[in-house]
């Protein structure tokens, strides 16, 4: 009997690999002689680097870079097992986590550090880069990233514009003649689970700006600046970035990756499944178990359990999902490849207790799943 265990992380309690090991421990209590394939998963956001390092036998590379407001931060990226692919979470350089609520300022925040991480990955020999979007403190359309890679952005007087989203209103010319030549030799896959465009009511500034500290007046200013940036990019780079699904991800970094890196925007979970070779590892499996911290009505929109389930259903394999909590709309996952799902929390407990006991709860629930499955097989 072969079982594939492919969970996402259980946020604030277990990494994807730790979750997979806890599930295996519970299953082995019932099926000690089964073959287990552990494939840590992620959907392109937080935890993607570690999941793919664990899934491919890669390494983590630490690299101090410019933070969202210019102060150095301890960035990192993953160099995967093939030695040629790097995976970068933009939040490792420009994440909201680096700023206290009172410090958040999307008018000034920059993705410059993301460009520095890309440059460091190129220095390591990577020529295929997965860039995970999400958790950003920025709203600069990826222009800071481009500046770090050698692009020059000028105002009407020929001066370089300062970093940050507000400065895009002063943009007059984009010059990529000095962009790092290795960018053209590299394939960039951009992972995101949002489809917001760059501008407008559903754009980067309007939807995500407020959580980054933008006032209503700031949102209006940033959106106008972003529209202006899109016009200049269309003229100077011959790339249309306004209206592209996912272009508004990470404060417009999705759009910046299109026009400066020549990247392709794809669902994060699909990229992780591909790089982890999940479908190959599912061959001849009798059961697939996945999971994450919460299953609700939003799970069907690009989250890990659904991506794993769709991959399993291509081979007709049953799928069980485990979650820290079940919320409104969770039943929708039945129509997307998950055959059964269970909460691992045994009863009414505080969040602190649930997080602290996640491993033992996950192990116990996995054992019970195996016991019920065994009864069904008889």
TrEMBL record:
Sequence similarity: Belongs to the glycerate kinase type-1 family.
GO molecular function, one term: glycerate kinase activity
UniProt GO BP: organic acid phosphorylation
Stated name of the protein: Glycerate kinase
Organism: Sporolactobacillus shoreae
Alphabetically ordered keywords of this record: Kinase, Transferase
Keyword match Transferase: yes
InterPro entries from the UniProt entry: Glyc_kinase_flavodox-like_fold (IPR018193), Glycerate_kinase (IPR004381), Glycerate_kinase_RE-like (IPR018197), Glycerate_kinase_sf (IPR036129)
Any one Pfam family match given in the protein's UniProt record, by short name: Gly_kinase
């Amino acid at each position: 009997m072969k079982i594939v265990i492919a969970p996402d992380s259980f946020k604030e309690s277990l990494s994807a690999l730790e979750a997979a090991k806890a599930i295996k421990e519970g299953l082995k209590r019932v099926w000690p002689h089964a073959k287990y394939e552990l494939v840590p998963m992620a959907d392109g956001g937080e935890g993607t680097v570690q999941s793919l390092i664990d899934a491919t036998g890669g390494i983590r590379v630490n690299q101090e870079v410019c933070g969202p407001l210019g102060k150095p931060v301890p960035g990192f990226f993953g160099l995967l097992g093939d030695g040629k692919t790097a995976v970068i979470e933009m939040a490792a350089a420009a994440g909201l986590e680096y700023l206290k609520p009172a410090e958040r300022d999307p008018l000034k925040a920059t993705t410059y550090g993301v460009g520095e991480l890309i440059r460091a990955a190129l220095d390591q020999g990577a020529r295929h880069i997965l860039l995970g979007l999400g958790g950003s403190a920025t709203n600069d359309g990826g222009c800071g990233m481009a500046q770090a890679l050698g692009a020059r952005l000028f105002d009407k007087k020929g001066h370089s514009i300062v970093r940050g989203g507000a400065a895009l209103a002063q943009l007059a010319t984009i010059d990529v003649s000095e962009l790092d030549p290795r960018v053209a030799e590299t394939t960039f896959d951009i992972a995101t689970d949002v489809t917001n465009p760059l501008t407008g009511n559903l754009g980067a500034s309007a939807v995500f700006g407020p959580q980054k500290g933008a006032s209503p007046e700031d949102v209006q200013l940033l959106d106008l600046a972003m529209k202006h940036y899109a016009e200049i990019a269309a003229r100077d780079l011959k790339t249309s970035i306004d209206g592209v699904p996912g272009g508004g991800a990470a404060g417009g970094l999705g759009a910046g990756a299109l026009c400066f890196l020549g990247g392709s925007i794809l669902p994060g979970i699909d990229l992780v499944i591909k790089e982890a070779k999940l479908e190959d590892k599912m061959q001849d499996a009798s059961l697939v178990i996945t999971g994450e911290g919460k299953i609700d009505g939003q799970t069907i929109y690009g989250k890990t359990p659904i991506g794993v389930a769709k991959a399993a259903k291509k081979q007709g394999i049953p799928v069980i999902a485990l979650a820290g909590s079940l919320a409104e709309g969770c039943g929708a996952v039945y129509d997307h490849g998950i055959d059964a799902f269970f909460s691992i929390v045994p009863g009414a407990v505080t969040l602190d207790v649930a997080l602290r006991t996640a491993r033992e709860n996950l192990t116990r629930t996995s054992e019970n799943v195996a016991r019920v499955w065994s009864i069904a097989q008889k």
